[in-house]
Design a protein that fits this description.
- 41% of the residues lie in helices and 18% in strands.
- It is an alpha/beta fold.
- The protein folds into 3 domains: 236 residues, 2-enoyl-CoA Hydratase, Chain A, domain 1 (Alpha-Beta Complex); 190 residues, 2-enoyl-CoA Hydratase, Chain A, domain 1, CATH 3.90.226; 42 residues, no CATH class.
- The strands form 3 sheets. Strands 1, 2, 3, 4, 5, 6, 7 and 8 form an 8-stranded mixed beta sheet that branches. Strands 9, 10, 11, 13, 15, 16 and 17 form a 7-stranded mixed beta sheet that branches. The protein has a two-stranded parallel ribbon with strand order 12-14.
- It is globular, with a radius of gyration of 25 Å.
Length: 533
């Protein structure tokens, strides 16, 4: 097979500088991930262990098939908020008894596993992934319910969690709940609505209202075990389908449940081992310049993530600031759209629309590699139809039915973020490199626009304009927009599914493609809106 050539020079000063900048960003990222791993901190972790309990990631590790990967999702949820990084929940995709599953696990070391607003957003995103990709959903439950001080932000939208569980079941997507501790109040409906429920002797506590609430509401005296213990639910209420003697037994039983699901993927896995890229994945660290205004060739990225570095480019001489073409990734066919020089012109927009239609005809998933400052502005381009051509590309993305994957590797600004399938356009998965930035426009441009508008307003009113104040305002705005465009800020708000090490890109995308093919992969057949010509 022909492979992409590479002009990358690892000895070049600009490459070394970019690599050093990326390593610094990765070190910072590791520090933030460590906060999520730490949960509620040493004090509460030790208290949890003294009770003879496993931590959430330990439970997940025992649940998964030996030596299989776990793709953790949204690990930085709640970053930059008043809540702990990770949002007191672990979510991700892993293989259980040979079946790819969506797994969620409460972290009881963080306020007893109580759900805050970011926990809710993270759980809803996990349910969306399970539903769209038809992944069986396993909930490892230990939570006291809603974090009461923030109930105003949880109660109303929180009902969607229970709606999702029933919709998963109605769609034939299995749901399994394993209760390791409290699952009270609204949380009681998670085991109550799941297809299969496992409870643990003297550990699981499932009730709508605990003893204090029952006392207040009815005057009745009761204890945890008779009110909602595992043995009561196994023998009397029938809520528990399986009765486990300890955590390890509960996990064993959950694995046996999955083994008996008879759950099958819509598409077989690719046969044989995929040929690895011809170039070293380590070199991905130095491809994206520290200054995103400096152009780089996305083919250097493509060459280091696709099988055999083999890439058949589509329309290589037309609309050259957008690279499009066909490849395989871990054996799965993909169509790739990658921004080359940042700006999208009319030609690039039309090229993208045609390419997306071709992918839908062939039922091939699409991978978007973002590095765009948006659609080109200016008199010449407006007269040339940039609005209708950009709308054509966005139309194609919006109505495409094949699965989309997005990776923000550089800039992703303005409507270019939309045309390249940003979060609002429902990609199956969206990840970012530490080098990525995303906002309505670049910080300098946004601050400059505000300055021009303010100056024009003062002139129209016949008022003097304070240039010193303007300089201060521009600096403040630039700093704010820069901070709000960084990947950890955006990941904290769940605008992506995680910030990843560039060297892990091929592995992450391979896991996503495998999960995607659990559901049917089918393209649109004439289901596009009117393309403005």
């Amino acid at each position: 097979m022909p492979s992409l050539p590479s002009a990358l020079d690892p000895a070049a000063p600009e490459y070394r500088q970019a690599t050093a900048a990326m390593r610094a960003k990765l070190a910072e990222l590791d520090g933030e991930h460590a906060k999520a791993l730490a949960g509620g901190g040493e004090k509460y972790t030790e208290r949890h262990r003294r009770r003879g309990k496993l931590l959430p990631r330990e439970r997940i590790e025992l649940l998964l098939d030996e030596d299989t990967p776990f793709l953790e999702l949204s690990p930085l949820a709640a970053w930059g908020s008043d809540y702990p990084v990770g949002a007191s929940m672990v979510t991700g995709i892993g293989t259980v008894e040979g079946v790819e599953c969506l797994i969620t696990a409460n972290d009881p070391t963080v306020r007893g596993g109580a759900s805050n607003p970011w926990t809710l957003k993270k759980a809803l995103r996990a349910n969306e992934i399970a539903y769209t990709n038809r992944l069986p959903c396993i909930s490892l439950v230990e939570s006291g319910g809603a974090d009461l001080p923030s109930q105003k932000e949880i109660f109303i939208p929180g009902g969607a969690i229970f709606r999702d569980i029933t919709r998963l079941s109605a769609a034939g997507i299995p749901t399994v709940a394993v209760v390791f501790g409290n699952s009270t109040a609204g949380g009681a409906y998670i085991p109550g609505m799941s297809d299969h429920t496992v409870m643990i002797r003297e550990r699981s506590k499932v009730f709508l209202g605990g003893p204090p609430l029952v006392k207040m509401a009815t005057g009745e005296e009761s204890d945890d075990e008779s009110l909602g213990g595992a043995e009561m639910h196994a023998r009397t209420s029938g809520l528990a389908d399986h009765f486990a003697v300890d955590e390890h037994d509960a996990i064993r039983q959950a694995r046996r449940i999955v083994a008996r699901l008879n759950h099958r993927k819509a598409h077989p896995d690719p046969a044989g081992l995929a040929e690895p890229p011809k170039y070293d994945e380590e070199e991905l660290l130095g491809i994206v310049p520290e200054d995103l205004k400096t152009p780089f060739d996305p083919r250097e990225v493509i060459a280091r993530i696709v099988d055999g570095s083999d890439f058949d480019e589509f329309k290589p001489l037309y609309g050259t600031s957008l690279v499009t073409g066909w490849a395989r990734l871990h054996g799965y066919p993909v169509g790739i759209l990658a921004n080359a020089q940042g700006v999208l012109f009319s030609a690039e927009s039309q090229k993208a629309a045609q390419f997306i239609q071709l992918a839908n005809q062939r039922d091939i998933p699409l991978l978007f590699l973002h590095n765009t400052t948006g659609y080109m502005v200016g008199r010449e381009y407006e007269q040339g139809g940039i609005i209708k051509h950009g709308a054509m590309m966005i139309n194609a993305v919006s109505n495409s039915k094949v699965p989309h994957l997005s990776v923000l590797i550089g800039a992703s600004y303005g409507a270019g973020h939309y045309g390249m399938c940003g979060r609002a356009y429902d990609p199956r998965f969206l990840f970012a490199w530490p080098s990525a930035k995303s906002a309505v426009m670049g910080p300098q441009q946004l601050a400059g626009v505000l300055s021009i508008v303010a100056r024009a307003s003062a002139q129209a009113k016949g008022q003097p304009y304070d240039d010193d104040a303007d300089a201060g305002l521009r600096a403040m705005v630039e700093q704010q927009i820069e901070a709000e465009s960084l990947p950890m800020f955006l990941s904290g708000r769940l605008y992506d599914d995680g910030v990843i090490d560039p060297r892990d890109t091929r592995t992450v995308l391979g896991l996503c493609l495998s999960a995607i093919h659990t559901a049917p992969v089918e393209g649109a057949r004439g289901g596009f809106g009117i393309f403005r010509m």
